[in-house]
Amino acid sequence: MSKTTLDVLHTLLAAPQAGEHLLRETRDFWEADWDYDEMDALYGELVEEMEDLVADLTAVWGEPEFHGRWDDDDYPEWAFHDRIAFWQREGRYAYVAVRHEDKELPIELVLGVSDGALGGDRGAGEIPAGVQPPGADQRGVQPRPGAGRQVRQLGSAMPSLVVLLARRSGAVI
Predict the structure, then answer these.
(1) What pLDDT is stored for residue 171 in this prediction?
(2) Contacts of range 45-50, beta carbons closer than 8 Å, 24 or more positions apart
């Protein structure tokens, strides 16, 4: 691992807000000159690069608190990547991740820092007492805790991302 990877993560950790650094991005897939085999191959390349970084960071920081995919049961609520590995550092989450938000968009390999604002583990973005979270049905049945926060805070994100988070939370869409 280059010293640059750790330098980027330390710089992100020192910033007052969460942030990301794009390490690598594939081309987009808007045009008709691509196929799923190419997309899968590029995705696989970025996953391999991510795994190399995870191994390097593990040698310095120890085992990550989570290392897996978006469909794993223990996937963190605050994350919205396809694959992620994160370590708790200085009260925040330092991570390396691969994401592909929609089939037309580039696949990205990123380093980042999160405050856990999309989940409830640090108290950020909590819904005030007495306010019903979005997504409760007419019977008052609510999605799992945190689901409304996720959809509301990511409302300006791509619709597919909002749908993915809603489905993961059990919300009816």
Answers:
(1) 56
(2) 46/98, 46/107, 46/108, 46/109, 47/83, 47/98, 49/23, 49/24, 49/109, 50/83, 50/85, 50/96, 50/97, 50/98, 50/109
Contacts with 69 (C-beta within 8 Å, 6 or more apart), sequence order: 75, 82, 83
Q: Which residues of the chain have pLDDT under 70?
A: 1-3, 117-173
Question: What is the C-alpha to C-alpha distance for residues 106 and 144, in angstroms, rounded to an integer?
Answer: 31
pLDDT of res. 165? 52
